[in-house]
Amino acid sequence: MKHGWLAVVFGVNIIKLLSVHSASVDFPNFPTKDDYGIVIGTNSNPVDDDITDNGPAAPLKMTHLRVRSEIALRYARTAVVSNVYNPSKRPQEATFQVLLPETAFISGFTMTLGKETYEAYVKEKEVAKQIYNDAVAQGVSAAHVATKARDSNHFTIKFNLEGRSNATYRLTYEELLVRRNGVYNHAINLLPGALVPTMDVVVHIKESQKISVLRVPELRTGNEIDATENDAQNANAVIKKSKNEREATITFTPNLAEQKRLAEIYAEKSKKSSDPDSYNIGYDSSEEENENVGLLGQFVVQYDVVQPKNGEILVNDGYFVHFFAPTSLPPLSKHAVFVLDTSGSMAGNKISQLITAMNAILSDLNPRDHFSIIEFNTHVTVHRLNEADNVDNINSLVPPAIASPENIVAAKIIISKFRASGGTNINSALDMAINLIQNVVSQTNLANGTNSDTGKKKNNLEPIIIFLTDGEPTVGETDRDRIIRYLSVKNDGERRAPLYSLAFGDDADRVFLRKLSLRNEGFMRHIYEAADAALQLHHFYRQVSSPLLADVKFLYPHRQIKEGSVSRSEFRTINDGSEVAVVGRIAEDVNEITPQVRGLRGDGHGRRESYEINHKVPVKPEKDDHLPLELLWAYLTIKQLLDKRDAGDDSHGDSTSSKDSPEQKALAIALKYSFVTPLTSLVVVRLNKTDVVDPVDVERVDVPNVRRFRSVPVAPSSLMKQIYTGFASGDSLSVASSDGPVLYAQSTRLITDSGYGLSKSDQNGRNTATNGNLHRRDFDHGDPDLHQNYNRGEPFEEKYHLKGFNWTPYVYRQYTDTLAFKVNGTEVVLYLTENIDPPKMEGGDVECVNSTPLTAEAVAGVAESAGSVCVYISRCSAARDITVDDYRNSYCIVNNMYAGICCPRSEVDK
Question: Which residues make up the CATH 3.40.50.410 domain(s) of the chain?
Answer without folding.
Answer: 334-545
